[in-house]
Amino acid sequence: MSMIDIDKHFLYPANIWVAQQPTIISTLLGTCVAVCLWDSRAKIGGMNHYLLPLWNGDGLASPKYGNIAIHKLVDEMQAQGASPKRMVAKIFGGKTSQKGGSVAYSIGLRNIQIAKEMLEELQIPLLAESVGGEYGRTIKFDTESGKVYMKLIQGS
To answer: Known catalytic residues?
Structure first.
């Protein structure tokens, strides 16, 4: 199957996308984190894109929060036939360097931390990561192969 035949989906912040058919899910990350989950047997892949680490219980339990977005991604993948026992994860984003500010540093770091803690708690192996640092990233997740293509955004 060529790249031309594959569905494409751009994932905006605070969203989740799960695909049973071959799809390229792409997104753009700064301090946000994206978790890519893949079940190789079911060939189901999904990605979330969250802005903040923890929902504090006020207002809507939105996938803009890491702890909500990760659970919703696992649930949605299960609903489409994936098994958490077969899922593997890759995480990206969490930019931590910014001139003059420690807020971005702590948000990026906490976003990375919540992803790692929750994946460990859910017993989903983390196969790869590109997190932290001073650059944003663009990523493209191929749900058929489980591969993620990443590019650093210089000067972001």
So the answer is: 32
